[in-house]
Amino acid sequence: MCLIDLLLPVGYVVSGILMVALPLMGIYLHRRKRGIGLVIFGAATLTFFVSQLLYIPLNYALESLVSGWLLISSSILTVAIILGVFMALTEESLRFLVLRHFKGYRKEPVAFGLGWGVAQPVLLGVLFLLLAMQLFPLASMGAESYVSSLNESGLYSTTELEAILLDLELLDTIPWYLSLVSAFEPLLYIVLQVSFTLIMLQYFSSKKTQYLLSAFLLHAVAIVVNLYLQLYNYYLMLAVYALISSAIFFASLRVSGLDVKKFRRKYL
């Protein structure tokens, strides 16, 4: 009996290729259209990593406080809102600071949004491909056979082998199509980052704080929906997340005086 469905690693390969190829293709098309270098993409990607360096340790501390409070409140939605607001505040504050002090980046908001959003799907895509390489051999082996081969190596204790066997058996419960649809969430992240950059750009051109607040609030809503719904049903979350991402994208086009055709002609 196979340990896992062969389609599971195949799905991870397809997802990995999509998450790596589509963002890089978007950057290629945008660079060719706009005639710009890689500096702005690199600066935006660096800003993304800075936001994560700030967010992860602060979020860990916040989760420690929130988890204790959760035992009292028993409100998962409230915790999702707190974490979503905190993450949105971290990212949008950095976006505001970079666009405020590097005015040249305001001329290429889509490039900045692409550069910010590309890191997550590309890194996840590489991880998916590496995971698929590990899963393909397992697809032709049983759990016991694989663990026996590890036992022969003498590198694992009995307790570790039992834990590995349990983990591998859990893989058999993962539907193969989950590995395929998992690519869409990080790709939607790129759409959102472009949208938030376009919306915030309106603040710098009009000095109306409503655009600054809109970028923050819409970002928070997207994160809260993601965090809350995936606890109940991943596919429902993905569907709602896609609808929200599309709505935010079209809203960003509207405030920028663009439609889809004008956006493609100008940026792609």
Largest sheet, in brief, is: none
Shape: elongated
Low-pLDDT segments: none
Category by helix and strand content? mainly alpha
The percentage of residues in β strands lies in: under 5%
Count of extended strands: 0
**What portion of residues is helical?**
over 70%
Task: Indicate how many domains the architecture comprises.
Answer: 1
Order of helices and strands: HHHHHHHHHHH
Query: From the alpha-carbon coordinates, what is the Rg to the nearest angstrom?
Result: 21 Å
Oligomer: single chain
Distance between the termini: 49 Å
Average pLDDT rating = 86
Describe the model.
With 268 residues, this protein is mainly α. It has one domain. Helices cover 84% and strands 0% of the residues. It has 11 helices and no strands. Helix 8 runs antiparallel to helix 9. The radius of gyration is 21 Å and the shape is elongated.
